[in-house]
Amino acid sequence: MIKDNIKKSAIAAIFSTITIGVLTLLTYKTDYGIFLIASFGSSMVLLYGYPESPFAQPKNIFFGHLVASVIGLFFLNFVPLPIYILLPIAVGFGVGAMILFNVTHPPAGGNPIIVIMGSVSLDYIINPIIIGSIIILVFGVVLNRLILKKKYPL
């Protein structure tokens, strides 16, 4: 049991480092834009620590981040409320929408906060959300399926 936990934690740590490392290099060493957001770090916990979880499946990772971020952008641009009211309402709608559309990905619950506090533009949906999520998923499939020989996605 302890040996399995050590192996699982080491694999999750290594694969998370690789995935976030690539996103970080793309963000800071290229002119292609931002590929990294804080909630992607939390996505690593599910993707590499618990890939069998429904919350770690590709549709949940991709659409969870997308839905929550779009809702954050909607509230940022169309709901004229003070930020201390806007943030909790946007997070609530983001969480509710992920559950409604069956694309729940808990790390994405923080995306409306990131979007609103960062006052991001519509381009944010393309990069880092869509492109960053696709990169994460490619690494997730390659590392889980090809290297660890796990059935991923389920």
Description:
The chain has one domain (2-147). With 154 residues, it is mostly helical. It has helices at 2-29, 38-49, 58-78, 83-100, 111-118, 123-147. 73% of the residues lie in helices and 0% in strands. Helix 2 (38-49) packs parallel to helix 6, helix 3 (58-78) packs antiparallel against helix 4 and helix 3 (58-78) packs antiparallel against helix 6 (123-147). The two termini are 24 Å apart. The protein is built from 6 helices and no strands. The model has no long low-confidence stretch (mean pLDDT 95). It is globular, with a radius of gyration of 16 Å.
Keywords:
154 residues; 6 helices
Sheet/helix structural class: mainly alpha
User: Roughly how many Å is the radius of gyration?
Assistant: 16 Å
Strand percentage lies at: under 5%
Task: Give the fraction of residues assigned to helices.
Answer: over 70%
Q: What oligomeric state is this?
A: single chain
Uncertain segments: none
Largest sheet: none
Order of helices and strands: HHHHHH
| Tally of structural domains | 1
Q: What is the overall silhouette?
A: globular
The averaged pLDDT comes out at: 95
| First and last CA, distance | 24 Å
How many beta strands in the DSSP annotation?
A: 0
Question: What's the gist of this structure?
Answer:
The protein is mostly helical.
Which helices and strands appear, and what pairs or packs with what?
Layout lengths: L1 H28 L8 H12 L8 H21 L4 H18 L10 H8 L4 H25 L7
Helix pairs in contact: 1-2, 1-6, 2-6, 3-4, 3-5, 3-6, 4-5
